[in-house]
Design brief:
The protein has 269 residues and is mostly helical. It has helices spanning 4-36, 53-82, 97-122, 125-136, 151-159, 161-167, 172-189, 204-208, 212-221, 232-236, 244-252, 258-268. Bound molecules: zinc ion (2 copies).
């Protein structure tokens, strides 16, 4: 049976895992894009302004607080699993490989749908003012913005997984891959630079997945582009910003060249 000591240990382990994942993924993106390749990629910057350092520090602090809450949810899931109340299965042979892949895809779809509607609710004036505004204080997002939430929003962001583990059989590896994909996609939406190829929106994948420009425009304009992974709900509900495609193509069509880098270096001197 789960002792109080076990609960604390699971919470600490979960918190450290969340922290490591955030600093590895957001940190790698920030370091590469904002320091190593910043000059070469400058033509790909979606907004011309940069987030001030104090805002970035606030985003990191808020994200760490979000992880306190996420870790509590993860501990609750482990506890429910110990009680035999969830559908999580640890014996991989219990279901096929195909089932594991399908359950991952199903998880993405469930989360995407939950996120879209929860996000739209968050934009109701009263909820926006008291809860979601915290995330939107980052008008110019950076990779560190990904988990910068008001504590109530942090609870709502993670809460969807609780009913899911009661209904959908999931292997812990699938849950871990999902958590990694969710973090990577969240960071990608906030990197502030458009790195997808210029014809991406004309390709099948571009019609399915959202781009960095999509979520960047959400931070810039607020009442548009609510989706997370996929563009389905924004398409169905007609909430894509009318200039989304044009803005994407403007940024994505800019070519990175050595000449651009040299010209920028000359301008800076
Ligand atoms: Zn929003
Ligand atoms: Zn955001």
């Amino acid at each position: 049976m789960f002792s109080q000591w076990d609960v604390q240990l699971v919470w600490v382990y979960s918190f450290l895992m969340l922290l490591t994942r955030y600093f590895l993924i957001a940190g790698a993106a920030y370091w590469c894009i904002y320091f190593i390749f910043n000059k070469r990629l400058s033509v790909k910057k979606i907004q011309q302004r940069f987030a001030p350092n104090n805002k970035i520090i606030n985003e990191i602090i808020a994200s760490v607080f979000s992880f306190f809450i996420f870790a509590a949810f993860m501990t609750l899931i482990v506890y429910l699993q110990e009680l035999g109340l969830t559908k999580i299965y640890t014996d991989f042979s219990q279901h096929s490989w195909w089932y594991a892949v399908l359950s991952f895809v199903a998880l993405l779809f469930i989360h995407d749908t939950y996120f879209y509607w929860m996000h739209r609710l968050m934009h109701l004036p009263v909820l926006f003012k008291h809860i979601h505004l915290h995330h939107h204080k980052s008008v110019t997002p950076t990779p560190w913005t990904a988990f910068s939430f008001h504590p109530v929003e942090a609870i709502l962001e993670f809460a969807f997984i609780i009913p899911v583990v009661f209904i959908l059989p999931l292997h812990p590896v699938v849950l871990m891959i999902f958590a990694f994909a969710m973090t990577a996609m969240n960071v990608l939406g906030h990197i502030g630079y458009e790195l997808f190829p210029k014809n991406f929106l004309q390709q099948p994948l571009g019609k399915i997945f959202n781009t960095t420009t999509h979520h960047d425009m959400h931070h810039h304009y607020n009442k548009c582009n609510y989706g997370l992974y996929f563009n389905f709900w924004d398409l169905i509900m007609r909430t894509n910003h009318k200039k989304y495609q044009k803005t994407f193509e403007q940024k994505a069509s800019k070519t990175i060249s050595k000449q651009t880098t040299t010209m920028q270096q000359l301008q800076q001197h």
